[in-house]
Amino acid sequence: MTEGQYRHVYVVIEHIDGKLIPASLEMLGEARRLFDDYNKRYNLNEKVVAVLLGHNIKDLSKTLIEHGADAVVVADHPNLKDLINVIQTKVVNQITLSKEVAEKVEPSYANEYLRPRYMFFAADSIGRHLSSTVLADLDSGLASDVNKLVISDMSITHHIKTGGKPLMYDKTLEMYRVDFSGFLWTTILCLDNRNEKISVREYSPQACNIIPGAFQPIDPDPSRKGIIIDFEPKFDDADLKIKVLSQTFVKSEVDFENYKTIVGFGKGIQAAPEKNIKLVEEFANLIGAQVGITLPISKNVFSASPATTSTYMIPARVIGTSGSKVGPMLYFAIGLSGAQQHLAGMEESGFVIAINTDEESPIKDASDIFLKGRMEDVLPLLMAEIKKEPQLVKAK
Ligand SMILES: Cc1cc2nc3c(=O)[nH]c(=O)nc-3n(C[C@H](O)[C@H](O)[C@H](O)COP(=O)(O)OP(=O)(O)OC[C@H]3O[C@@H](n4cnc5c(N)ncnc54)[C@H](O)[C@@H]3O)c2cc1C
To answer: Pocket residues for ligand 1 (CB within 6 Å)?
Structure first.
């Protein structure tokens, strides 16, 4: 491998209705933290490059620089107004493979530049799709639903990749994801083939899509400097055959995607619905969590104040087969039994903590920690302990 062929981390930015989605800034924050350390460790000057596609979106560049981008490559074109995967894939790859862009990003690395070293996408419906098609075109690997990243040098011994010999792989991106309902951390590596007897080839970029909410953005700094690179995309007539005739963004009343923690509650609130929902609300606010419910809660089986009813006892908060499917890092199941239909909506959670009076409830088998007790007793104790640990407070 020629060391200089692979440079920088390219972060593919998403926006809706002219606004950046939180996951874009979170990915930039993590890229910034990783690359500050990376450049120091390896004595390099590689960049965090934001890739921004759309129409009339150039104004967003400044925010991206304030949030950690060294360079923003902007493809601002009427053909990019709508989210059409084949077109987006094509333009993202025109940018990633462009020597002219690389020359502007960091001239000293431009001569040998072939591709990005790393690429990040958001693990939402748009980013998951786009990352798979971009990486298929680039013929490299992709890890999905990642929530921890480390760059390290590691010795790998593998019967196919290295022919059974220990070989050093420098600047390897360790991409972690939670599997088997949180019982296992899987580390995914995108490694070159270095077994001369079988095949030798390099895989770059090392790419992943990242769970929204997994990382924190950095504090915006209006004095940060970065460059904005205008990119003129090229289209074939064939690309433009697909036309979006009309488009409506259906906004969910409740945002589950951008929360690391979700607190779900069920009929266990029954002893004092208003008071207990307020308790759940206080707990969720303390830890920066979104609130979900079981189906019966949305059916007005309990009476509460109009404000509580209209905020919490609504179909948009239902988790399960009749509502949303969620996959936060942490799910609190409070006073809910864990019916099949509910489990189907939260079984991809990384870690589950249940609070329930009945240890025969099915939620016990679906949880990593089962706290036996009344929510009215357990939640205040939990909140008192959390308040002693400032880093746990408001950990959205
Ligand atoms: C076609 C169909 C679709 C459905 N879709 C969904 C769906 O999408 N989502 C969904 O959630 N349900 C759905 N359901 C309903 C589902 O089958 C269950 O009836 C429902 O999930 C149960 O809700 P729950 O856990 O709140 O209540 P319960 O099953 O009554 O459980 C209440 C729990 O609270 C505990 N508890 C009681 N008091 C306390 C206390 N003080 N402190 C702590 N714990 C306490 C109890 O031990 C019990 O485990 C669907 C059903 C059907 C038929």
So the answer is: 266-268, 271, 294-296, 318, 320-323, 335-337, 339, 341-342, 345, 355-358, 361, 374-376
